[in-house]
Amino acid sequence: MLLSKQNMPRWLIFLIDILVVVFAIFIAYMVRFNFNVPPDQIKQWPQVFSIIIGVRALSFIISKTYAGIIRYTSTEDAVRIFIVILVGSVIFSIGNLVSYYFINAKNIIPFSIIVIEFMTVILLMVTFRIIVKIAYLEMINPGGAKTKVIIFGAGEAGVITKRSIDRDLGIRYKVIAFIDDDKNKWGKKLEGVGIFGFDKLEELLATNKVDNIIISVQKLKPERKQKIVETTIPYETKVLSVPPVSNWINGELSFNQIKKIKIEDLLERDEIKLDKEDISKELKGKVIMITGAAGSIGSELTRQILNFNPAKVILIDQAESAMFTLEVELNENFPDKKYEIAIADICNEVRMENAFKLFKPELVYHAAAYKHVPMMENNPSEALYTNIKGTKMVADLAMKYGVSKFIMISTDKAVNPTNVMGASKRIAEIYIQTLNQKGITHFITTRFGNVLGSNGSAVTLFRKQIEKGGPITVTHPDVIRYFMTIPEACRLVLDAGMMGKGGEIYLFDMGNPVKIVDLAKRMVQLSGLELDRDIQIKYTGLRPGEKLYEELLNDEENTLPTHHPQIMIGKVREYDYKNVSKDIEGLITLFDTQDNTDIVRKMKSIVPEFISKNSVFEQLDKA
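^ that's the sequence the OP posted. Answer follows.
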């Protein structure tokens, strides 16, 4: 019970170590003299025992060998014991040399005793700790059943993963195989465990009840991860992943850091390579304003921009709690960086003008917007107020105060919009595109699809529904969407903003489209659940304004390449500033009427390709 309920007292460990030393000295004499110690040697015992025990006790106190938690003994503890005992034995040897050559030509302690005692003490001290650790692990796992594990990757990370398992959970977990793509490693053993090719994985899963497969390879391609997950599904084997080395605690991997693989890991693509030198020239030493800074995109832009050493970053958002959370994070991760938190509504002209006048930003990243399709379909006046009026106000102020570049974050839903949200973003695009003709400010638009893990995204919703036991709600079995990770999207925004000269709409390569129902099924599988047994998928019907698929360009547009393979320039038709400005001013005046039908009708006149779907506003298209 002492082992399982609390740590063994330090004084007790120290006392046991001293008793080990006493026993080791005795054994040393017995072995040296074949269990027949001469009387003249026995007479020296008080002196020898006192010197050895005294030196060992002092070295234990200085090095605190007794301070570790024995049930978590690791290789590092054994190495420390070896060093401490070795230093003590060296001191004994030096004492002998001094005594022999400078005092009385005699050894204080026989060298043979020093050597035997050295080996015996190390053996007994380490053995004692291992026995305690095994006893503790046996107490918490009395049945002796082991969780079988396969490690994908027989490189350095794989070895570290195995050692962390052995160190933390050696009694309960057993690594039965390594899987590696390197043919030169096949058939060999690593720390006593066989290495196999990927083609043997299914056979290993079929013949062994494997509970976990751990992906230790740091930069494994998403396609490979998907193949691993697909192979394990029939065998109910959980797929875990080792975190990046930068996240290890004090450079050491703990088993508790190995987590279940996430859907984001399967949908991500190869890391985007940024032109960091040119982006640094664009951002370093500049005053930069980010609207919507507390949102998924705005907060990630903040993190990435702060790494380029701007003079100051002005963070604008009206979400008080989210801004507080962001501020706490920035204080922890960027203590030496300059940023200013400003709680503000982008539609408040007095507040925003004061921000521009006070901070004098040189670059503006405009991420503030309402983004949820059904919410805006039911609240068109708010989409008008924030997405159109708010964008117009911030863009006008940027031009008034001589901002160098204004980068707007748009959406693929602005293309051939079928909902109010998409139409409002398209109108905002049109306005800043025409504004580019008016002054020194370069207005740039970036357009991309859904981002993984953003607030209210399908992934976030499904994850919460799975945690509650379901059902998972999918609007339609044929709905497809493009997905991009938040960091990836923000890196492309920075690159597009750097290369933009004004007036462009930059489109991002969103990869292959994903069926939402397949996404839901994969998340269920990754959670270790079985569809229709543990959890169900429920189809709810398309929501107001929702369409089956998204697109990045309308039918009349095409693209031009840029220096970055994942960024294209959309060739869009040009608009006249005076006409657009007049139409938008007329639209904004409709806000006070709160007549949603009139507002949407006016939006459709500005964006003729806006055709409502699954919405009460379809009647306007028929009319």
